[in-house]
Amino acid sequence: MRDKRHFTSFYxxxxxxxxxxxxxxxxxxxVFGAARTMSADAAxxxxxxxxxxxIAESVSSRNNGGADPLSSSxxxxxxxxxxxxxxxxxxxxxxxxAEVSYEYDGMVTVCHIEISRGGRSIYSLDTAVEGGAx
Length: 134
Prior knowledge:
By secondary structure, this protein is an alpha+beta fold. It has one helix spanning about 1-60; strands at about 80-85, 95-105, 110-115, 120-130. Helix content is about 45%, strand content about 25%.
C-alpha cells in the first residue's frame, strides 16, 4: 500500500511539473513572438526615419535665391511621391512610399513628409525652410 502512494504522488508531481513547463513554454513563445514583431517594427521605423531625413535634407539644401520653391523652375525639391526599397534606394516597386507636400507662404517653405509601408503610416516629419536660405 505504501508503494502505491509513492507512485501516485510521483505521478501527480510529474504531471504538475509537465503542466508548469508547458505554461512556461507558452509564455516564452508569446514573448519571443512579440519581440520579433517589435524588432520588425523598429527596423521599419528606422528605415522610415532615414528616408524622411534624406528628403528633409534635400529640401533644406536647395538654393533658390528667395524664389518660390514650388515654381516649375525649381528642380531641387524632391517629387511629391517616391517609392523606396528595403535598402533605401528609390525604386518604382519599392515597399516604402514617401509622400511629400509643400506649402510656400512667401517667406517659408513648409514640407510635410509621410512614410508608409503597405498602407500603414510609419513616420511623418514636418520641416520648414526659409525661402531664401540655401
